[in-house]
Amino acid sequence: MNNGVREDGNIIHKPVLLEEVCQVFGSFALLNNQAQKIKPIIVDATIGAGGHSGELIKRGAYVVGMDADREMVKIARENLKKLTCLTGNYNDFFTIINDNFVNIERALKDLKIDMVDGILFDLGISSYHYTFDRGFSFQDPESPLDMRLSGDQQVTGADILNALPKKQLADMFLKTMPYRRSIGLSKAVLEYRNVKKIEKVGDFLEIIEKVTPLTYRERRKISNSTLPFMALRMAVNSELENLKIAIDRSWHLLKQNGVLVVISFHSGEDAVVKENFNNLTRSGEGLVSGKFVRPGELEIRDNPRARSAKLRFIQKK
Ligand SMILES: C[S@@+](CC[C@H](N)C(=O)[O-])C[C@H]1O[C@@H](n2cnc3c(N)ncnc32)[C@H](O)[C@@H]1O
To answer: pTM of the full predicted structure?
Structure first.
């Protein structure tokens, strides 16, 4: 199995830290609170295949799901409609919007929802993305190096590699890679594009292979391509910038005692979350209990994608 895609072609996206997410929302009495007449509203800002949302619905939440990727919205809707706990109209249990989470305020306003009880961000991409032929997977050299979550975005991964000056390329790779490898890779990109335009996943793989020292290749547990591909995807989708804006906007949409939960998969993402949460506790607006939650050994063995996950949460005072 690779990235949640089985050899028989079926995809399994296993939601990361599922029980922990439900426990966090549950421990703040948002879920399973029989005394509540109205269902708590939880925004799943990254609904993906709907794994977390499904469980939140089962435990009594009304879910507003968002995803920038139209394909994922279709998948989530189909998956959630199959929940056996849905009685009657599925609109009474969830609604899903195809939009970037930076637009969370506008999305809720359109639904005439002022404030919500909880918001969840499970960052990055879903296992399904590796099957989309949009350049997310380095297992597919013939795929166009696209990497856009939404067709509304103008700039692809190939556009970035073909256009950015050397310094900016190095800065982009630095977000996920060590200094010397970032400089080496940015030089190699320039050398390649001086001869030939970068178009496909295979072109980027060739560049990465050229600059990866043998010793480094042997030492790494993950593929040499994982970090360069992640850096490019993060740039294409302005992931760190959007996360910063979205946390800020989400905070204003939380009710008193509402909870914001973020699962990150990379130190750059976690740094954004940590800094924002620290600012909110320092200003007296938020309460963070404990540090962060990581998946246990069993979950990592069962779902290797979980190995770098970190969950942080903050409650609004
Ligand atoms: C890790 S997956 C979420 C998986 C989901 N929790 C589940 O259990 O199935 C992240 C999802 O967030 C979406 N996404 C990433 N960045 C986004 C953004 N800025 N706005 C909206 N959706 C985004 C991706 O398209 C992907 O489907």
So the answer is: 0.93
